[in-house]
Amino acid sequence: MELLQVTYREEFNNLGKHLHSIAYAAMGYQRVLEENRKLYNQVQDMKGSIRVYCRVRPSLSGQSNNLSCVEHIDDTTITVLTPTKTGKEGRKSFTFNKIFSPSVTQAEVFSDTQPLIRSVLDGYNVCIFAYGQTGSGKTYTMSGPTELTEEGLGVNYRALGDLFELSNQRKETISYEISVQMLEIYNEQVRDLLASDGLNKRLEIRNSSQNGINVPEAHLVRVSSTSDVINLMNLGQKNRTVFSTAMNDRSSRSHSCLTVHVQGKDLTSGSIIHGCMHLVDLAGSERVDKSEVMGDRLKEAQHINKSLSALGDVIAALASKGSHVPYRNSKLTQLLQDSLGGQAKTLMFVHIAPEYEASGETISTLKFAERVATVELGAAKVNKDSGEVKELKGQISNLKAALTTAKKEGEPEQLQRSQTISISSSPEIIIPSLGTSPSLPKSQSSSDHSSSVTNAENESSTTSRRDSLEIQEMLANPSLWPPLGKPASSAKEDNKDSASGRWNETLMVNKNDKKDPIPAAGNARWNPTKVYPEQNLNKLTANKNTKGNQDHDQQRIRPEIGSTDDSSDLDECSEIDSVWQSSIPKVTNNNSPNGLTSKPKKQQYNHVAKPKSTDFKSAIPSLIPSPSTRKPSNGANPNTNKPKRKTGYSK
Ligand SMILES: Nc1ncnc2c1ncn2[C@@H]1O[C@H](COP(=O)(O)OP(=O)(O)OP(=O)(O)O)[C@@H](O)[C@H]1O
Questions:
Q1: Burial per residue of 608-631, b for 16 or more beta-carbon CB atoms within 10 angstroms, e otherwise
Q2: CA dihedral defined by 573, 373, 114, 178, rounded to 10 degrees?
Q3: Ligand 1 atom closest to the CA of 631, numbered from 1
Q4: Positions at the binding site
Q5: Where are the alpha helices (DSSP H) in 421-486?
Q6: Is the CB of 139 within 6 Å of ligand 1?
Q7: CB distance 344 to 125 below 8 Å
Q8: Is there a domain that residue 20 lies in?
Q9: What phi and psi values does residue 268 have, to the nearest 5 degrees?
Q10: Buried (b) or exposed (e) across 399-436, using 16+ Cβ within 10 A?
Q11: Between 457 and which of 11, 395, 453, 632 could a Cys-Cys bridge form, CB atoms 3.0 to 4.6 Å apart?
């Protein structure tokens, strides 16, 4: 008996040791996995691959069928069931940078996104966009649920909160300014959600890789706290909601884009970094009853389809490293051009509805995402000007502008003087407007208001030779630059914000463009037309358009963008590929005043999806999958109004 006990104890001890070593090995394995993931991410960073995170929405209560098409999820792989196939072919696996299961919280999603977001403060351009069929959770990820709570806050809110926190931590070394724009693309029109007349005004996109301000006419609002952001987003959402009162969930009918512009000045070296981040909630797709798709609704459906299709074409061209990338085929791809083809860090959140009947659309969506993940943009680059470079650029700008003015005005003396300085005459250089200040005296007005040169160029073109000398003084003494949002005349009185002279200057010119004879309003490329410093935020909010757009007082019908026949889900997937491979018709006339083309030259899509039932027929052939279910939150009827989105949040 004793012998047995001894043996037992020994074995027990051995087992314990064994377990211990297994646990140790497991820990090591986890470490290796983690390291591998980091290395993999670094490689991805170096290649500049578009990161793809996949999020699976939980099955929503009230849905009759709780069967899920998602068979298995781990950290990076998702396996979905294909309804019409059996055995091995009955399931398909996809691998992405990260998979978020339905139970993952908003905070967890954000924490995986945070490093990317933070890099905007280091001068990188970042783009995060949410993609997926309607009702799959895009808005939930980017903004949050209908009734916002602290835990429910989406990426947009958290991102800005985090940027404030980090900029505050760095305030001893870097002085940051953070400003935002809120835009939406509806029916191929870019609208300013922060302007009272933003829904009526058509804005132009100007791709400027210099400062990321691609829609200079849209309000650029300086923010410095989370509550500023919440106020702004509430305003933006209200503009959208007002517009959608009778349009039934407008958010799904338009692409919304929150753009965050960051400028930082290194307080020791004087170097300037500027980063820009687009946070995009794309319009969703849904099938539509063909018989009801007419007039405006048909147009709306076609625009969504076209722009998502154009996004697919751009991705396809990038993935195949084609020489021509058709960015100009839609406003969406134009807006995202710098992020998709430039030196940005780009992340796509692909959203999946888990319902079994949505599996066709889910597979199509995942196939699209798989393709996106193959796109290599090249390593992202920091937008940074050292103090010296900044100064030299400023000088070049001034000299170049002086030359232009002299030439224009035919002042031989001035011309001669300018021409002796060869560096100033390079027309190719796009010059950041560091070298000039709006506080300088403006002796003349330029006649070239429409030129799309930089502020510095425009502005400097109005200065006399004496002014040029003053510019040098300004360069030597940045404290003379006016702060953001203050009139030029008071600039010298307030030196506090002078660290960011470059941006201040740009903005100031705009602030003054109505009353000031300085012809900065003509500077379409650099000028954000209006700038509201934080103190003006309330005023801005008060000015919002409450009238809404009654002309859109009609029921929304979602277009069918994806093929919808559940019985042929994999065939549907090939539709995406065939669209990618198709030649790209010029469906959008970017030069037309409204950006619309009344008659597309050619149907853009190769396939017309088969109707699933008599209730739904395909009006829009597919690039993007459409769900076979109505939006759960919405009730089952596609033609009933979805409850008005309320994403307002008060802290
Ligand atoms: N992760 C999630 N957890 C809980 N609820 C979610 C989640 N994702 C989405 N939902 C809910 O699902 C519904 C649809 O989500 P959401 O409106 O974000 O979809 P969407 O993709 O933006 O749709 P649309 O394209 O029509 O705008 C909402 O009621 C939302 O609150």
A1: bbebbeeebbbbbbbbbbbbbbbb
A2: -90
A3: 14
A4: 132-139
A5: 455-460, 465-476
A6: yes
A7: yes
A8: no
A9: -95, -50
A10: bbbbbbbbeeeeeeebbebbeeeeebeeeeebbbbbbb
A11: 453
| C-alpha–C-alpha distance, residues 108 and 329, integer Å | 36
HEC readout, 59-93: CCCCCCCCCECEEEECCCEEEEECCCCCHHHHEEE
* Tokens 């290395």 -> residue: 39
Q: Tell me what ipTM this predicted complex has.
A: 0.99
pLDDT band (50, 70, 90) for residue 104: very high
More confident of the two residues 493 and 303: 303
If one counts the domains in the chain, the total is: 1
Record the pTM: 0.60
* Alpha-carbon Rg for the chain in angstroms: 27
DSSP-assigned letters across all residues of 200-255: TS-B-----TTT----TTS-EEEE-SHHHHHHHHHHHHHHHHHHHTTTS-GGGGSE
Neighbouring CB atoms inside 10 A of 248's CB total 22
Looking at the domain assignment, is residue 466 inside a domain? yes
Residue 46 lies in a domain: no
Residue 101 Cα to ligand 1 midpoint, Å, equals 14
Is any atom of ligand 1 closer than 6 Å to the C-beta of 58? yes
Taking the CA atoms of residue 150, residue 193, residue 139 and residue 281 in that order, the dihedral angle to the nearest 10 degrees is -130
Residue range of the domain that includes 447: 386-524
Which one of 140, 148, 626, 630 would you pick to mutate in the ligand 1 pocket, going by the greatest count of ligand atoms within 8 A of its CB? 140
pLDDT tens column, 612-648: 333 323 222 233 333 333 333 333 333 333 334 434 4
Tokens read off for 465: 């030779």
Is position 609 within any domain?
no
Pick from 220, 334, 199: nearest CA to 280: 334
| Ligand 1 lined by 191 (C-beta under 6 Å) | no
